[in-house]
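Hypothesis: this fold can be encoded by more than one sequence.
Test: take the structure tokens below, design a sequence, compare later.
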């Protein structure tokens, strides 16, 4: 979860897109996501292609069966769904949360899931429509009323196996029942939410939540596959244009900012002004502010450590090979006794446990790996 709650902070990025770029201290080529979306033929969240150009994962699986199989089980693929299919909501017949005089409930009734707010004898109730978040950290929810979308005032948190206030919602007890039901989400904000959590919610620049493909599928990153499928059906051995976008071919900075279209690039975060302890959730921003990122290094991109077609590897020691691929030449030095000494005075394995520490974000009831790679100094304020 997280995108739904922070997406408002990105709106100023789009409003200020005339700034074009926010140069880094090292004169990198980082630019606003809105400018990349406007300039590139394809970039995540673009939404320009017509609906009939999207062919679905079944078509991709004919040639890429293994990648489709593993990717479909990743948190990205499960980052949005209809509320009625949420495993988290199915894990209990009812969830309840009390704040002052207000009681919030999410419960199943027949084939629907209802969200209700109660204050004494008065209550409001709405069927939930969409769940955002794979459930690894939690989920937040949308319902509609009068043609508008609303974000529920409470969300599900995995560490609590229960509800608490949605991040970004006011912590003070609401004055009225109407205010307690949740937050009205503007149309352009909803569009951004779906653009990062779904596939093909916007086509021909027209947004329609009802036709979105749940979760991040192949075409959310590689672009619509219609022309590619036609070309491969005509001649699978053709070495000419494949009419599909391959992010793996991007230069280092572009590669990282490709992921940053949804995981928050440095330029987007700087322009939004949303800098503080909560920005540990913005992995691309934190990586781009690492000293070793410099002007971009192909050994230090998102895909250098993470395969987007596979589940996230949570064993921190498994990333040592990536660390030592850069630092191996400094890993040992002769000592007076003839023994070798590690370049790190603390340990010679499990590098990221120290140099990419986990940071707790209290309002999300979870910890996030800080992707600003650095020597963490005791007592230093966060963010460093």
């Amino acid at each position: 979860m997280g995108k739904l709650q922070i997406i408002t902070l990105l709106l100023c990025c789009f409003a200020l897109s005339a700034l074009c770029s926010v140069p880094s201290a090292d004169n990198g080529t980082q630019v606003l996501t809105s400018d990349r979306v406007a300039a590139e033929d394809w970039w995540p969240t673009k939404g320009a292609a017509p609906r009939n150009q999207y062919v679905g994962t079944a078509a991709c699986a004919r040639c890429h069966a293994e990648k489709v199989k593993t990717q479909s089980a990743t948190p990205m693929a499960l980052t949005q769904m209809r509320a009625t299919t949420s495993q988290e909501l199915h894990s209990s017949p009812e969830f309840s949360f009390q704040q002052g005089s207000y009681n919030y409930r999410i419960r199943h009734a027949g084939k629907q899931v209802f969200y209700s707010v109660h204050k004494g004898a008065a209550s409001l109730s709405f069927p939930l429509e969409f769940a955002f978040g794979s459930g690894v950290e939690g989920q937040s929810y949308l319902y509609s009323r009068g043609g508008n979308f609303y974000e529920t005032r409470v969300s599900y948190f995995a560490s609590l196996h229960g509800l608490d206030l949605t991040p970004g919602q006011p912590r003070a007890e609401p004055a009225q029942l109407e205010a307690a039901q949740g937050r009205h989400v503007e149309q352009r904000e909803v569009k951004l939410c779906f653009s990062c959590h779904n596939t093909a919610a916007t086509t021909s620049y027209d947004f329609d939540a009802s036709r979105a493909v749940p979760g991040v599928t192949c075409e959310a990153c590689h672009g619509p596959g219609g022309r590619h499928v036609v070309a491969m059906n005509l001649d699978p051995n053709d070495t000419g244009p494949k009419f599909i976008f391959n992010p793996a071919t991007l230069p280092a900075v572009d590669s990282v900012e490709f992921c940053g279209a949804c995981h928050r690039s440095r330029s987007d975060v700087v322009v939004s002004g949303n800098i503080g302890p909560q920005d540990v959730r913005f992995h691309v921003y934190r990586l781009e502010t690492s000293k070793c990122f410099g002007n971009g290094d192909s050994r230090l991109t998102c895909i250098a450590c993470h395969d987007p077609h596979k589940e996230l590897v949570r064993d921190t020691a498994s990333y040592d090979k990536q660390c030592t691929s850069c630092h191996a030449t400094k890993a040992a030095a002769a000592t007076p006794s003839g023994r070798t000494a590690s370049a790190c005075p603390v340990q010679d394995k499990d590098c990221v446990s120290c140099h990419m520490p986990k940071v707790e974000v209290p309002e999300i009831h979870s910890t996030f790996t800080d992707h600003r790679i650095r020597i963490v100094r005791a007592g230093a304020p966060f963010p460093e």
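The longest strand covers residues 102-109. Residues 57-71 form the longest helix (15 residues).
Hypothesis status: open.
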